[in-house]
């Protein structure tokens, strides 16, 4: 099986070809080690850092958030549902943990902005 990937690790967006017709994955088209690591992860178990904005119950502005590390791609929709069900109040500080265990992964959801 062959796959074409676009590396999302930097704005270069290198096109990476992945082929496992020989029994193990071979990659071409990446131009740095990060690209090779991304492609290897993507064919084995794709994951993404989740970013979102969530409303605050006592402010008219939302707070931006992200997962502290990449979440399995198949959990992103469930994670968004869980995040949107949170009841969060200001003040919120950058780096504050708003949810300790997104979808049972052990990965935290953290604020990426201050809302006083
Ligand atoms: S392979 Fe390297 S240079 Fe190319 S997009 Fe990925 S991180 Fe950027």
Features:
116 residues; four-stranded antiparallel beta sheet; CPE0013-like fold; 28% strand; 2 helices; 2 domains; alpha+beta; single chain; 18% helix; elongated; binds iron/sulfur cluster; three-stranded antiparallel beta sheet
Outline the fold blueprint.
Blueprint: E1 2-6, E2 15-19, E3 26-28, H1 33-44, E4 47-48, E5 51-54, E6 63-67, E7 71-72, H2 76-84, E8 97-99, E9 109-111
Antiparallel strand pairs: 1-2, 2-3, 4-7, 5-6, 6-9, 8-9
Bound molecules: iron/sulfur cluster.
Q: What features would you describe in this structure?
A:
The protein is of the alpha+beta class. It folds into 2 domains: 2-44; 51-111, CPE0013-like fold, CATH 3.10.530. The protein is built from 2 helices and 9 strands. It has helices at 33-44, 76-84; strands at 2-6, 15-19, 26-28, 47-48, 51-54, 63-67, 71-72, 97-99, 109-111. The strands form 3 sheets. A 4-stranded antiparallel sheet has the order 5-6-9-8, covered by helices on one side. A 3-stranded antiparallel sheet has the order 1-2-3, covered by helices on one side. The mean pLDDT is 95. Iron/sulfur cluster binds at residues 7, 9-10, 12-14, 30-32, 34-35.
How many structural domains in the coordinates? 2
Rg from alpha-carbon coordinates: 18 Å
Q: Give the class from helix and strand content and strand pairing.
A: alpha+beta
Strand order of the largest sheet: 5-6-9-8
- Proportion of residues in extended strands: 25-35%
Q: Write the CATH fold name of the largest domain.
A: CPE0013-like fold
CATH architecture classification of the largest domain = Roll
Q: Can you identify the CATH class of the largest domain?
A: Alpha Beta
Distance between the termini: 52 Å
How helical, in percent, are the residues? 10-25%
Order of helices and strands: EEEHEEEEHEE
Count of individual helical segments: 2
Q: What is the molecular shape? A: elongated
Compounds present?
iron/sulfur cluster
Mean residue pLDDT: 95
The overall strand count is 9
Main beta-sheet annotation: 4 strands, antiparallel
Low-confidence stretches: none
